[in-house]
Each structure stands twice: as structure tokens, then as C-alpha cells.
Amino acid sequence: MGRVRGRVSPATETYRQEFTVSYSYPVVFTRRLFDPDNTVLRDTLARLEPAKRHRCFVVIDDGLVETMPELPGLIEDYARAHRDSIDLVAPPHPVPGGERIKVDLHFVERIQQRLYEHHIDRHSYVIAIGGGAVLDAVGLVSSTTHRGVRHVRVPTTVLAQNDSGVGVKNGVNLNGVKNFVGTFAPPFAVLNDLDFVLMLPERDKIAGMAEAVKVALIRDRSFFEWLEANVDELTLYWPDAMAYMIRRCAELHMIQIARGGDPFETGSVRPLDFGHWSAHRLEALTRYHLRHGEAVAIGIALDSRYSVLAGLLPEGDDIRIACLLETLGFRLWHSALDTRDSDGERSVLRGLREFQEHLGGELTVTLLTAIGTGHEVHEMDAGLIGRAIDWLRERAGA
């Protein structure tokens, strides 16, 4: 047999790299987190290396500091009381709360500079204390510094404790697009302190309840009925009612993330964003004068009415949903719903295009077939959306 001479093109070969990464993190509900007698924070930091002194950098919402000027001192006192386990490398670092921290990458870069200066490594902790926007931005910092340092979330709003704080998403806005720059990275732990919620301004207490209504509508009819039955206690912010509402909402979000089959949103289905396609657009249209929860409440009412008009949801359920939201204290109308682009199209409809672009793939929007049952559709009719908006305007007497 003769010898083969010259170069021989190799056959195509494909190797499949496949592995599974397991994620686990505690979500704790407590009170007086920074009381030295409460060891939740200390025990959380020590859960992997009990004998180690853990280096920590704390980022805190400056709005929270205005409300609780004593809080930075309480954190430092807590660290001193547990100095065998906690090494606070610097005083708590204040950052702007709300959407302010998400609209300018300068804040992200400044926090990363502080982590660099204090030699925060992958076994150190970045502890974020604040509302959902602060957690989103600091989570982005933590997940991109050294490709990931340990991030502990301390949510201080209803919205952060019952929704965003327990999830795996981090991000900030760019060019007016919500969460355009972001990562999927689970936190090391989530520590919820009800006392922070109870001292919130009334508007922020109300705003966070929209996510409870949302997740009840798509996943748990009995929870929706509990919200209806306990609406008076919730509007009075009774601690037991607030605590249950937050815990059950957080639990339903956690179940969806863990068992929904797509925790990092590689597909096009996002049931937890029911009502959000218009909410994100309304936030931008109002220059964030609408709180996220306030915009979500409008989006829920809009998509509930659309579900009725599309023949999916029984007539009357939309009124029931709107009544609950209104009784909780939400106004289900904003004039931004009526603004139009230069071509005459409703400006809010751009939210559908942005929603699809953010997801990738085909448009997928969650609607309702019953209270407690979500249903995905892949197109929405602009005419029906217009009629749903008209319905909201008429309800509000605008």
C-alpha cells in the first residue's frame, strides 16, 4: 500500500462540553437584622468558612440613610460586636437610590473602584442594602468584579423583598432601555428585614404590592383571594399581613425561578413579567416619576382587560382585578398612555418591540385565561390594546 503524501484535511470533529452547575442560597426573613443579638448576618457570612474573619464592603441606599441616619453606625457596631467573623474594610458607602443609580454607569464604575482600592477578592463580600435598583446595580458590580465576588442582598422595600431581591438578575439601564447592561448571577444570600418595610413612606409600601397581585394572577388563585380578603389589613400595613404577603410573593417567585425550567431566561417565555411590557415603557415615558410598582399595576390592569377583549379571560374578572389594585391604593391611569409618536402610533406600543428585543426570539407576552392561570401569546393587537387603554381612561374618569 502506497504512502499518503502532502497535507490531508482532517475530518470534521465535534466535541460537546456539558456540565451542570448547582446554585443554592438562603433567603431569610427576620427582624432587627443589625441588632448584635441577631446572628443571621454573621452566620450567613460564616456558612462556608466558619473559622474565617470575612472581609466585607457595604453599599447602602442614600435615601435609606436619610430616613435612618443611625443605620451606618448600627452596621459598624454590628461588625465590631462580631469582629471575630466580620472585617468591615470601610464605612458603608452611600449610593443614589431608585432609578438614579441605574441610569448612569458612573455609579457602577465608582463602586468597582472602591472594591479595587480595598482589595475585595472573590472570597470577600459585597453587601448591598437598599431597594431593588440598588440591588440591581450592586449585583452587576459584584458579578463582574473578578468575574464574581460574593454578593449579599439586604432588600429594604416591599418590591425588593417580595420580587427582585430573591431573583438572579442584575442590571442597569442604557440609552433609556431598561436593564440593557446586566448579568444573571445568583446572590450569596438574601436577608429580608421587615422593619425596613414598615418604616417606608406610604407610596413605596403600596407600590411593592403590585408584584404580589401579579404573581397571584399568573400562579396562585388562592393567594389572590387572600389578598382580596386581607386588603384592609394591607392598606393599614399591619405587620402580620405585610409579612405574609411578602413571604408568599417571594416564595412564588422562587418556585418559578427554580422550577420554571429557564432561570437565566435563555428562551422567550417570561411569565414573571406579566404586565411589564407596558410598565417598562411607562416608566421611561414618565421619566421614572411613576414607581416601578405603580407602572406594573397599570400594566396588570391593561393586560387583564386585553385578556377579556381577546376572549381569554371571563368578562368581569378584569373589573375584579382592577378593584383590588384600586383598593390597595393604585391609580390605574396615567396620561402617558395617550401620548403618540410622530407617526401617530401610541408611544407605549414601543414597549412591545423593546420587550421582544430584550428577550430575543419571537414576541412572547403572558396574558390570563383565569385568575391564577397565565397564558403565553405571541402577538398582540394594537386595536385591542387601544380599547383596553380607553377602558382604563374611562374607569379613572380622565
From TrEMBL:
The keyword Lyase applies. InterPro entries: Dehydroquinate_synthase, DHQS/DOIS_N, DHQS_C. Its cofactor is NAD(+). The keyword Metal-binding does not apply. GO terms for molecular function: 3-dehydroquinate synthase activity. Residues 95-204 form the 3-dehydroquinate synthase N-terminal domain. Gene3D superfamilies: 3.40.50.1970, Dehydroquinate synthase-like - alpha domain. Residues 208-339 form the 3-dehydroquinate synthase C-terminal domain. GO terms for biological process: amino acid biosynthetic process; aromatic amino acid family biosynthetic process. Keywords: Amino-acid biosynthesis, Aromatic amino acid biosynthesis, Lyase, NAD. This is 3-dehydroquinate synthase.
